[in-house]
Amino acid sequence: MARNNDRRDRGQEREEPELLEKLVGINRVAKVVKGGRRFGFAALVVVGDGKGRAGFGTGKAREVPEAIRKATEGAKRNMVRIPLRDGRTLHHDNKGNYGAGKVLLRAAPAGTGIIAGGPMRAVFEVLGIQDIVAKSIGSSNPHNMIKATFSALNHIQAPRAVAQKRGKRVGDILVKREDKAATGDDAAAS
After folding, report:
1. Per-state percent for the chain, helix, strand, coil, to nearest 5
2. 8 A C-beta contact, residue 58 and residue 23
3. Cα(48)–Cα(75) distance, rounded to whole angstroms?
4. For residue 15, what pLDDT is reported?
């Protein structure tokens, strides 16, 4: 019995240093009571391994460090895997929404960098995305933006998964960019 616990502990120790954590925002809320105001804090944190796994979490507490710790634990529990093309960008463009928050995510060529605003940038950095163009169209509330971003990321599909669903080969699904360019040039010449 003790061996299993040791293995579990070693696995947790090994996983911890690999995770990147980003604090997206802290809200201070006040509760008015008879003696004055009682302050509480709500933290929003995103966590990822830089290799295609990420999650977000929220935590509330009377002190900031405790709120951050709770949010980080929640983020680690809710991690999801996102398929990336060449480990640096998305496979295809996508839209996501949550409440009034709407985001547009576009795959980008190598060398573009992360072109995105605050909360979305944090998600992409911990996810390990290096080239992406993203736009927030709706609410600028960090909670809604992050949930909308994860909504879009959860709908990203790898070509291998699409090919498997359709019963085809990956080569049949992917059209080479050169083939597209040649077809586009022929159509423009006509």
Report:
1. 40, 30, 25
2. no
3. 9
4. 45
The rounded distance, in Å, linking the Cα atoms of 124 and 132 is: 8
Sequence-distant (≥ 6) Cβ neighbours of residue 87 within 8 angstroms? 51, 52, 128
C-alpha–C-alpha distance, residues 187 and 190, integer Å: 5
Report pLDDT digits (tens) over 61-102: 999 999 999 999 999 999 999 988 888 888 889 999 999 989
* C-alpha distances in Å from residue 124, one per residue of 38, 83, 138: 35, 13, 19
Distance from C-alpha of 66 to C-alpha of 72, rounded to nearest angstrom: 10
Torsion of CA 155, 160, 162, 167, to 10 degrees: -160
Computed from CA positions of residues 120, 123, 127, 130, in that sequence, does the dihedral angle turn out positive or negative? positive
Eight-state DSSP code of residue 89: B
Cβ 148 vs Cβ 135: under 8 Å:
no
Integer Cα distance of 133 and 121 in angstroms: 10
pLDDT on residue 14: 47
Cα gap 142→45, rounded to integer Å: 10
HSE-up (13 A, CA, CB side) for residue 145: 23
Which CA distances in Å does 85 have to 36, 40, 134, 136, 153?
A: 54, 42, 16, 22, 13
